[in-house]
Amino acid sequence: MIMDANDDIDNNLSRLKSEDRTVLKIQNESIVTNKEISDTVFNNQSNLIILNISHHYNMSL
Fold first, then answer.
1. 50 and 61 Cβ atoms separated by less than 8 Å
2. Can you tell me the distance from the alpha carbon of 8 to that of 22, in angstroms, rounded to the nearest whole number?
3. pLDDT tier at 3 (50, 70, 90 boundaries)?
């Protein structure tokens, strides 16, 4: 009986560890995606500022 209980505990622990790894992987992917979105937004804003300045001064890029 004790061995069965220990096996159950080990199985549950390994399952939890696997689920934790999955959650961490998803969180890391989400962080990377958010960083990519932030970079894209920043780049787009920078490009718009450059376009506005060049338009204001009638400059060609």
1. yes
2. 21
3. low
State how many domains the chain has.
1
**CA–CA separation, 16 vs 8, rounded Å?**
12
Structural domain that includes position 1 = 1-61
Please answer whether residues 36 and 43 qualify as being in contact, where contact means their C-beta atoms are separated by less than 8 angstroms: no
| DSSP-H helix ranges across 1-61 | 2-56
Q: Is 46 exposed, middle or buried (0-12, 13-18, 19+ CB in 10 A)?
A: exposed
DSSP secondary structure letter of residue 57: T
- pLDDT tens digits along 35-59: 889 999 999 999 888 888 887 777 6
